Recover the amino acids of this structure.
């Protein structure tokens, strides 16, 4: 199997993970979490969203988060921006990288940003060129690439069209979102094959949610095809509190454990990462789904019991 020597793990827990949490997480806890992730070696972090607080109340403190984070050299931090107002707020709060987002399916796009896909692309014209002119890095998400909660199947041609438009606009990378976690490895091979025939691998990243437990298998196929940037969320944080059974992003812990076991470098300290996930679990108030995290915590508890027994 041909695999990359090194993978860039793009941590989205503070944004994609937390945005779905029912309990309002205090800003100070978010900052401690981000700090712990940096300490664990994460170098690409999506820390918040400059979106309407009415739509995503959990991230209403984006300015405080962006102003409050420690920004060591070599750490890149990004935030979602849906429109010019979001960009202006992000820049004022010190962000040097932002991400725009839209869906490959019309209904999900409307539900998410209250616009048609065409109107969203028009809105991006007011975001991407000015952001680039200010010297920011701009990433883009295409959501519902592998399936839509409202429309079901999504045509790869829609993903090809949007990816080409966004790259022409000047975004440095497209992250391909399996928003509801329905992708399977064969489908990933098909969609990526079509995209990679048109764009270099480093222009593409994968962003799998793990609803059906297929995220790692999808990552493996992606890596064999040359993809070297993978989005994930510490502990597998996320999932919609109003959709029982829906899961969050692929857990960073599970991803990193698998990559390291296969000899693929990430620059991440897995023990410290687990501590960051544990911290997140403590402030969201429930266990997180990462399998590696559960196994690790179980091992620690057994060792503690043995020590207590003498
Ligand atoms: P709208 O209601 O159509 O827009 O929302 P509007 O222009 O009429 O504004 C409504 C209100 O929001 C107004 O306030 C605006 O001022 C305010 P009011 O007058 O009612 O008091 N507003 C803003 N406030 C702060 N920051 C802004 C901003 N813009 C407007 N930037 C809008 C349109 C796009 C704003 C809204 O739909 C929105 O914020 N949506 C965000 C949705 C979101 O964040 N979804 C989750 C992220 S996407 C995702 O998770 C998928 C991903 O992970 C990949 C994958 O998994 O596939 C990326
Ligand atoms: Mg997502």
């Amino acid at each position: 199997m041909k695999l990359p020597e090194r993978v860039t793990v793009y941590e989205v827990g503070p944004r994609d993970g937390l945005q779905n949490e029912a309990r309002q997480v205090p800003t100070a806890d978010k900052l401690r979490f981000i700090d712990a992730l940096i300490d664990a070696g994460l170098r690409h972090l999506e820390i918040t969203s400059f979106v309407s607080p009415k739509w995503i109340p959990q991230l209403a403190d984006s300015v405080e988060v962006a102003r409050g984070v420690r920004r060591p050299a070599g750490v890149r931090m990004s935030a979602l921006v849906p429109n010019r107002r979001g960009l202006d707020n992000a820049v004022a709060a010190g962000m040097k990288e932002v991400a725009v987002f839209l869906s490959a399916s019309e209904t999900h796009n409307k539900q998410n940003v209250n616009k048609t896909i065409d109107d969203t692309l028009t809105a991006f014209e007011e975001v991407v060129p000015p952001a680039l002119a200010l010297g920011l890095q701009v990433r883009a998400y295409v959501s519902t690439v592998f399936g839509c909660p409202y429309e079901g199947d999504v045509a790869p041609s829609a993903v090809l069209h949007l990816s080409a438009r966004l790259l022409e606009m000047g975004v440095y990378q497209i992250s391909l979102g399996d928003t509801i976690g329905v992708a399977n490895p064969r489908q990933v091979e098909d969609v990526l094959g079509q995209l990679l025939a048109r764009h270099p691998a480093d222009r593409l990243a994968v962003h799998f949610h793990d609803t059906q437990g297929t995220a790692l298998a999808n990552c493996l196929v992606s890596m064999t095809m040359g993809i070297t940037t993978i989005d994930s969320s510490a502990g597998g944080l996320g999932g919609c509190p109003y959709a029982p059974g829906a899961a969050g992003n692929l857990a960073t812990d599970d991803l990193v454990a698998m990559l390291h076991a296969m000899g693929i470098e990430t620059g991440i300290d897995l023990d410290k990462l687990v501590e960051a996930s544990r911290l997140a679990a403590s402030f969201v108030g429930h266990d997180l789904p990462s399998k590696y995290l559960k196994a690790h915590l179980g091992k620690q508890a057994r060792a503690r019991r043995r020590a207590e027994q003498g």
About this structure: The longest strand covers residues 97-103. Residues 16, 177, 179, 207, 209, 249 surround magnesium ion (ligand 2) (CB under 6 Å).
